[in-house]
Amino acid sequence: MNKENKKGELHPVWFFVILSVITIVLSAVLSFFGFQGTQTDVSLGSSSTSILTVESLLSGSGIKFIVSESINNFLKFTPLGTIIIGLAGVGLMIKTGLLKSICKRLNKIIPRKTMFFIFSLLCIIMGFSVDFSFVIMIPVAAILFTEYKRSQVVGMTMAFASVAAGANINIFLTSIDYSLTELAKSSVNLVDSNYSYGYTGNLFFVVISSLLLALVISIITEIIARKKPVRIGTEELEISEKLDKIGFKKSLIAFVIMCVLLVYAIIPGLPLSGFLLDSSQNMYINKLFGANSPFVKGFLYIASLIFIICAFIYGTATKQIKNGKDMIKHIQSSLNGLGEMLLLIFVASQFIALFKYTNIGNVVTVDLFNLVADIKPSFIILLLLSFIVVIAISNIFVPSLSTKWTLFVPKMMPLFMKSNITPEFTGAMFRLASSVTNIISPIFSYFVVYLGFIGLYSKNDFTIRKCYKMLMPYFIAILILWLFIVFGWYVLKAPIGPNVFPTI
Questions:
Q1: pTM score, two decimals?
Q2: Alpha helix positions (H), 335-444
Q3: CB neighbourhood size of 315 (10 A)
Q4: Residue 170, Cα to own-chain centre: how many angstroms?
Q5: Strand partners, 500
Q6: Whole-number mean pLDDT of the chain?
């Protein structure tokens, strides 16, 4: 593997190698000079402070971590297992021609621009299952865009941008919403013990933001797609129209039956039902979408199993699968080319683990929060703008929503309440700003997945410069959209949820 495909075209593997070296050196320098930050913690209606420091990777413990934890860093990389499971399901759909058959029918009944909007919105909505959204929707986008005579690479970029930017503003309430709300309540009570902070306080805000996000992303996609040539990249299968109709009908019937069974399995109280729910939770929404819910944890596996069954039925009907060996051959074929992706994941997982070990991200984040906290509440516009920018920047270093929330809430939530900004609106701004830089953060695990899929489908576009070149228009457009929504909502004083407004 050459370090550069062409002059100035850095391979993603070398990109993460360079970032790892920079992290090692930077951690030593910052640790030597005592770079630190003050974190505020809230518990049981009281607050306390603690000091965060940078850990050097050139120390004895740091070198030990680099050497001894490299395998664990790779194995603990969140998307590693899901990629194989997801590709097995969607890959069989591609190899048998089922996915192409579906996309062909969609092309006949739904115009291209409308389809791009619908698909982007679907990616945003499916954000409750992060693994599914990234691992399944990105390769599906490649086939969909090919059928609509648009670049596969642009389609995958659109899918990634939609899921990444919409992950924190999902219309579904999950256990993350619950945990964020509970922490916010503790901080809010420091200012007003009688204030009622609810789970649905920014529901209207989230729904409108999701729709506008999908619209903007679809517009940007159409503009980019016009300038990007179409590379087919998949073999054309010779399937007669008659067999295609038979196979599609049978697979559709099977899909409907399995969806009905899935819905039955998540309805509590029925015979042999409810086994996909988290029985330890009281609220149904937490039973279904909680972090320990079998439905959420196993959604990718369930979806892949459904895809495999439907593809098998379609493949047998269209003679693409004549026996068990054919099915295995198709699945194996869909996993071809994973070697380079696994190499990328190994190198990227080391960088991400090293960066987290140094604690640089958390220290930078709390220092940025402290800068915003020094702004006088009377300068409300400056406060709002600074807040959004700081959250967006900190998200590059700390992609985890819950981690940033823990660092942010104790100091910033009371500040905004004293500025007459409701906690719900503060939370909504936080989630918007946190989402915008997901698509460009090298610390974000699924950014690596996106790069890997680009490498599978287009070696020509598999460089850091070209990937970022495709992502930047989405980043800029989404940032402008978020600023427009936040300031527009604040000026209009429109309700962001049931009986909840931007200002107190």
A1: 0.91
A2: 338-358, 360-373, 380-397, 401-418, 423-436
A3: 24
A4: 11
A5: 497
A6: 87
Give the DSSP letter of residue 280: T
User: Does residue 38 sit in helix, strand or coil?
Assistant: strand
Q: Per residue in 101-159, pLDDT tens? A: 999 999 999 999 999 999 999 999 887 677 778 989 999 999 999 889 899 999 999 99
The answer on pLDDT for 504 being more than 70 is: yes
Query: Are residues 92 and 334 in contact, defined by beta-carbon separation less than 8 angstroms?
Result: yes
Integer angstrom CA distances of residue 352 from 152, 181, 347, 429: 28, 28, 9, 26
Q: CB–CB of 247/101 below 8 Å?
A: yes
Closest by Cα among 423, 329, 335, 399 to 42: 423
Q: How many CA atoms lie within 13 A of 286 on its CB side?
A: 11
191-207: pLDDT as tens digits: 777 787 766 788 899 89
Express as a percent the part of the chain with pLDDT over 90: 51
3-state per-residue secondary structure call for 444-486? CHHHHHHHHHHHHHCHHHCCHHHHHHHHHHHHHHHHHHHHHHH
Q: Which residues fall within 8 angstroms of residue 137, CB to CB, at 6 or more apart?
A: 122, 123, 126, 159, 162, 163
- The average pLDDT across 157-171 equals 88
DSSP labels, 359-389: THHHHHHHHHHHHHHTS-TT-HHHHHHHHHH
Nearest partner of 502 among 426, 389, 405, judged by Cα = 426
H or E segment and range at residue 40: strand 36-43
Alpha helices in 69-196 (DSSP H): 70-75, 79-96, 98-109, 112-125, 130-147, 152-166, 175-191
Q: How far is it, in rounded angstroms, from Cα 485 to Cα 429? A: 9
CA distance 98 to 93: 5
Predicted pLDDT at 25 = 97
pLDDT score at 2: 46
- 8 Å CB contact between 284 and 267: no
Tokens 């899929």 correspond to: 453
Report percent pLDDT > 70 for the chain.
93
Residue 394 backbone phi and psi in degrees, to 5: -65, -30
Spatial distance between the Cα atoms of 97 and 320, rounded to a whole number of angstroms: 8
